[in-house]
Write a structure and sequence with these properties.
Length: 261
Protein backbone atom coordinates (compact mmCIF):
# COMPACT_ATOMS: atom_id res chain seq x y z
CA UNK A 1 0.00 0.00 0.00
CA UNK A 2 1.37 3.39 -1.00
CA UNK A 3 1.86 6.15 1.53
CA UNK A 4 -0.99 8.66 1.18
CA UNK A 5 1.47 11.48 1.83
CA UNK A 6 3.46 10.76 -1.34
CA UNK A 7 2.68 12.30 -4.74
CA UNK A 8 3.05 9.82 -7.58
CA UNK A 9 3.55 12.44 -10.29
CA UNK A 10 6.43 14.04 -8.37
CA UNK A 11 8.09 10.66 -8.07
CA UNK A 12 7.75 10.13 -11.82
CA UNK A 13 9.23 13.56 -12.50
CA UNK A 14 12.31 12.79 -10.45
CA UNK A 15 12.68 9.42 -12.15
CA UNK A 16 12.68 11.24 -15.50
CA UNK A 17 15.32 13.69 -14.27
CA UNK A 18 17.49 10.89 -12.87
CA UNK A 19 17.30 8.89 -16.08
CA UNK A 20 18.11 11.89 -18.30
CA UNK A 21 20.99 12.82 -15.98
CA UNK A 22 22.51 9.34 -16.26
CA UNK A 23 22.87 9.59 -20.03
CA UNK A 24 25.55 11.56 -21.89
CA UNK A 25 23.41 11.65 -25.04
CA UNK A 26 20.00 12.32 -23.43
CA UNK A 27 16.67 10.59 -24.02
CA UNK A 28 13.79 11.02 -26.44
CA UNK A 29 10.21 10.91 -25.22
CA UNK A 30 9.75 7.40 -26.62
CA UNK A 31 12.91 6.18 -24.88
CA UNK A 32 11.75 7.60 -21.55
CA UNK A 33 8.40 5.85 -21.89
CA UNK A 34 10.10 2.54 -22.68
CA UNK A 35 12.79 2.80 -19.99
CA UNK A 36 10.61 4.09 -17.17
CA UNK A 37 7.46 2.11 -18.03
CA UNK A 38 5.21 5.15 -17.92
CA UNK A 39 2.48 6.18 -20.33
CA UNK A 40 3.14 8.50 -23.25
CA UNK A 41 0.66 11.02 -21.83
CA UNK A 42 2.39 11.04 -18.45
CA UNK A 43 5.82 11.41 -20.06
CA UNK A 44 4.61 14.33 -22.19
CA UNK A 45 3.12 16.17 -19.21
CA UNK A 46 6.24 15.67 -17.09
CA UNK A 47 8.74 16.66 -19.78
CA UNK A 48 6.64 19.68 -20.84
CA UNK A 49 6.49 20.86 -17.23
CA UNK A 50 10.19 20.35 -16.60
CA UNK A 51 11.04 22.08 -19.89
CA UNK A 52 8.83 25.05 -19.00
CA UNK A 53 10.56 25.23 -15.60
CA UNK A 54 13.91 25.14 -17.44
CA UNK A 55 15.18 21.94 -15.83
CA UNK A 56 15.04 20.12 -19.17
CA UNK A 57 16.01 21.28 -22.65
CA UNK A 58 14.63 19.64 -25.80
CA UNK A 59 16.90 19.53 -28.85
CA UNK A 60 14.83 20.92 -31.76
CA UNK A 61 16.33 18.55 -34.34
CA UNK A 62 16.75 15.26 -32.49
CA UNK A 63 13.92 15.76 -29.95
CA UNK A 64 16.32 14.56 -27.24
CA UNK A 65 15.89 15.84 -23.69
CA UNK A 66 18.91 16.95 -21.64
CA UNK A 67 19.40 18.55 -18.24
CA UNK A 68 19.99 22.30 -18.16
CA UNK A 69 22.62 24.26 -16.18
CA UNK A 70 19.86 25.15 -13.71
CA UNK A 71 20.76 21.95 -11.88
CA UNK A 72 24.10 23.46 -10.91
CA UNK A 73 22.29 25.45 -8.24
CA UNK A 74 21.33 22.18 -6.53
CA UNK A 75 24.93 20.99 -6.76
CA UNK A 76 26.17 24.17 -5.15
CA UNK A 77 23.63 23.84 -2.35
CA UNK A 78 24.72 20.25 -1.69
CA UNK A 79 28.40 21.18 -1.67
CA UNK A 80 27.84 24.03 0.75
CA UNK A 81 26.21 21.58 3.16
CA UNK A 82 28.75 18.82 2.73
CA UNK A 83 30.53 18.08 6.01
CA UNK A 84 33.39 16.32 4.25
CA UNK A 85 34.01 19.25 1.96
CA UNK A 86 33.85 21.75 4.81
CA UNK A 87 36.34 19.76 6.87
CA UNK A 88 38.70 19.03 3.97
CA UNK A 89 38.75 22.49 2.38
CA UNK A 90 41.29 24.26 4.65
CA UNK A 91 43.67 21.31 4.40
CA UNK A 92 43.26 21.22 0.62
CA UNK A 93 44.01 24.94 0.41
CA UNK A 94 47.16 24.50 2.51
CA UNK A 95 48.28 21.54 0.42
CA UNK A 96 47.69 23.51 -2.77
CA UNK A 97 49.75 26.41 -1.44
CA UNK A 98 52.60 24.18 -0.27
CA UNK A 99 52.82 22.11 -3.45
CA UNK A 100 51.63 24.59 -6.09
CA UNK A 101 49.68 21.65 -7.56
CA UNK A 102 46.03 20.86 -8.23
CA UNK A 103 44.22 19.11 -5.36
CA UNK A 104 40.96 17.17 -5.86
CA UNK A 105 38.35 15.79 -3.46
CA UNK A 106 35.99 12.99 -4.46
CA UNK A 107 33.33 10.74 -2.95
CA UNK A 108 31.67 7.51 -4.11
CA UNK A 109 28.67 8.29 -6.31
CA UNK A 110 27.32 4.77 -6.76
CA UNK A 111 28.68 1.26 -7.18
CA UNK A 112 30.53 2.22 -10.37
CA UNK A 113 31.63 5.85 -10.13
CA UNK A 114 33.14 8.56 -7.98
CA UNK A 115 32.23 12.23 -8.28
CA UNK A 116 34.54 15.19 -7.66
CA UNK A 117 33.01 17.51 -5.05
CA UNK A 118 35.84 20.04 -4.80
CA UNK A 119 38.95 21.07 -6.67
CA UNK A 120 41.65 23.59 -5.76
CA UNK A 121 43.34 24.53 -9.03
CA UNK A 122 45.35 27.61 -8.06
CA UNK A 123 48.77 27.03 -9.60
CA UNK A 124 51.44 28.87 -11.54
CA UNK A 125 51.61 25.93 -13.94
CA UNK A 126 49.49 25.40 -17.04
CA UNK A 127 46.58 23.09 -16.26
CA UNK A 128 46.59 19.88 -18.29
CA UNK A 129 43.02 18.74 -17.56
CA UNK A 130 39.60 20.37 -17.66
CA UNK A 131 38.26 18.39 -14.72
CA UNK A 132 35.44 20.19 -12.91
CA UNK A 133 33.42 19.81 -9.73
CA UNK A 134 30.63 17.37 -10.57
CA UNK A 135 32.75 15.32 -12.98
CA UNK A 136 32.25 11.57 -12.60
CA UNK A 137 34.83 8.87 -13.22
CA UNK A 138 34.68 5.04 -13.22
CA UNK A 139 35.70 4.00 -9.73
CA UNK A 140 38.41 1.55 -10.87
CA UNK A 141 40.06 4.06 -13.24
CA UNK A 142 40.26 6.88 -10.71
CA UNK A 143 43.01 7.10 -8.10
CA UNK A 144 40.43 8.44 -5.65
CA UNK A 145 38.16 5.52 -6.50
CA UNK A 146 40.96 3.05 -5.88
CA UNK A 147 41.87 4.38 -2.42
CA UNK A 148 38.19 4.45 -1.50
CA UNK A 149 37.79 0.83 -2.62
CA UNK A 150 40.83 -0.18 -0.58
CA UNK A 151 39.35 1.19 2.63
CA UNK A 152 35.73 0.11 2.43
CA UNK A 153 34.28 -2.78 4.39
CA UNK A 154 34.93 -6.13 2.75
CA UNK A 155 31.22 -6.60 2.08
CA UNK A 156 30.84 -3.22 0.38
CA UNK A 157 34.05 -3.67 -1.62
CA UNK A 158 32.99 -7.09 -2.93
CA UNK A 159 29.61 -5.68 -3.96
CA UNK A 160 31.25 -2.87 -5.93
CA UNK A 161 33.87 -5.13 -7.50
CA UNK A 162 31.06 -7.34 -8.75
CA UNK A 163 29.55 -4.39 -10.66
CA UNK A 164 32.71 -3.13 -12.39
CA UNK A 165 32.76 -3.66 -16.15
CA UNK A 166 36.31 -3.91 -17.47
CA UNK A 167 34.90 -4.35 -20.98
CA UNK A 168 32.91 -1.11 -20.89
CA UNK A 169 35.67 0.88 -19.14
CA UNK A 170 39.00 -0.71 -20.15
CA UNK A 171 42.07 0.02 -18.02
CA UNK A 172 45.66 0.50 -19.12
CA UNK A 173 47.01 -1.47 -16.18
CA UNK A 174 44.15 -3.67 -14.99
CA UNK A 175 43.02 -6.57 -17.15
CA UNK A 176 40.46 -8.03 -14.78
CA UNK A 177 39.15 -8.10 -11.24
CA UNK A 178 42.15 -10.05 -10.01
CA UNK A 179 44.54 -7.29 -11.12
CA UNK A 180 42.39 -4.68 -9.37
CA UNK A 181 42.25 -6.71 -6.16
CA UNK A 182 46.05 -6.99 -6.19
CA UNK A 183 46.36 -3.21 -6.61
CA UNK A 184 43.89 -2.71 -3.76
CA UNK A 185 46.00 -4.92 -1.48
CA UNK A 186 49.05 -2.78 -2.29
CA UNK A 187 47.12 0.40 -1.47
CA UNK A 188 45.93 -1.13 1.82
CA UNK A 189 49.52 -1.96 2.74
CA UNK A 190 50.93 1.46 1.82
CA UNK A 191 47.94 3.59 2.83
CA UNK A 192 48.05 5.54 -0.43
CA UNK A 193 48.08 5.27 -4.23
CA UNK A 194 51.00 6.49 -6.34
CA UNK A 195 51.06 5.92 -10.07
CA UNK A 196 50.43 7.18 -13.58
CA UNK A 197 46.94 8.42 -14.38
CA UNK A 198 44.62 5.99 -16.15
CA UNK A 199 42.67 8.89 -17.61
CA UNK A 200 45.20 11.54 -18.69
CA UNK A 201 48.53 10.89 -20.41
CA UNK A 202 51.67 12.18 -18.73
CA UNK A 203 50.11 12.77 -15.31
CA UNK A 204 51.37 11.21 -12.09
CA UNK A 205 48.80 10.86 -9.33
CA UNK A 206 49.08 10.63 -5.57
CA UNK A 207 45.90 9.78 -3.65
CA UNK A 208 44.93 9.07 -0.05
CA UNK A 209 41.67 7.89 1.54
CA UNK A 210 39.82 10.10 4.01
CA UNK A 211 38.60 7.84 6.80
CA UNK A 212 35.66 8.13 9.18
CA UNK A 213 35.33 7.05 12.82
CA UNK A 214 35.10 3.40 11.73
CA UNK A 215 38.35 3.63 9.77
CA UNK A 216 36.42 3.30 6.50
CA UNK A 217 36.76 5.56 3.47
CA UNK A 218 34.29 8.43 3.36
CA UNK A 219 36.10 10.16 0.50
CA UNK A 220 39.45 10.41 -1.25
CA UNK A 221 41.86 13.23 -2.06
CA UNK A 222 44.50 13.37 -4.78
CA UNK A 223 47.20 15.55 -6.24
CA UNK A 224 47.92 15.46 -9.97
CA UNK A 225 51.37 16.41 -11.29
CA UNK A 226 52.56 16.54 -14.94
CA UNK A 227 55.59 14.27 -15.30
CA UNK A 228 57.06 16.59 -17.92
CA UNK A 229 58.40 18.92 -15.23
CA UNK A 230 58.86 16.75 -12.11
CA UNK A 231 60.37 13.28 -11.79
CA UNK A 232 58.48 10.44 -10.14
CA UNK A 233 61.19 10.22 -7.48
CA UNK A 234 60.84 13.90 -6.59
CA UNK A 235 57.05 13.66 -6.53
CA UNK A 236 57.21 10.86 -3.99
CA UNK A 237 59.86 12.53 -1.83
CA UNK A 238 58.46 16.08 -1.96
CA UNK A 239 54.70 15.77 -2.39
CA UNK A 240 53.69 12.43 -0.89
CA UNK A 241 54.55 13.16 2.77
CA UNK A 242 52.55 16.41 2.68
CA UNK A 243 49.55 14.67 1.10
CA UNK A 244 49.65 11.86 3.66
CA UNK A 245 49.83 14.38 6.50
CA UNK A 246 46.88 16.38 5.12
CA UNK A 247 44.87 13.21 4.65
CA UNK A 248 45.60 12.11 8.23
CA UNK A 249 44.46 15.46 9.62
CA UNK A 250 41.23 15.36 7.63
CA UNK A 251 40.56 11.77 8.73
CA UNK A 252 41.08 12.74 12.36
CA UNK A 253 38.61 15.60 11.91
CA UNK A 254 36.12 13.11 10.41
CA UNK A 255 36.42 11.02 13.56
CA UNK A 256 39.14 8.48 12.82
CA UNK A 257 41.04 7.53 15.95
CA UNK A 258 44.65 8.69 15.78
CA UNK A 259 47.10 5.81 15.88
CA UNK A 260 49.72 5.81 18.62
CA UNK A 261 53.39 5.99 17.69
Amino acid sequence: MKDRLTINSVGKAFRVLERVGESKSGYTLTELVRNLHISMGSAQRITNTLTELQYLFKEPRTKVFRLTPKFLSFGSAFLSQSEIREIALPHMNKLNEDLNEVVNLGIPMNDEEIVYIDRISRTSHILTTNLQVGTRRPIHLSSIGKVILAFLSETERKKILGHISFAQYPSKTLRNRGDLEQQIRTIQKLGYFAGKSELVEGIFILAVPLLNHQGLAAAGMNVSIPMSRVSEKKIKSRDLPLLIEAGSRISEALGKVKEEG
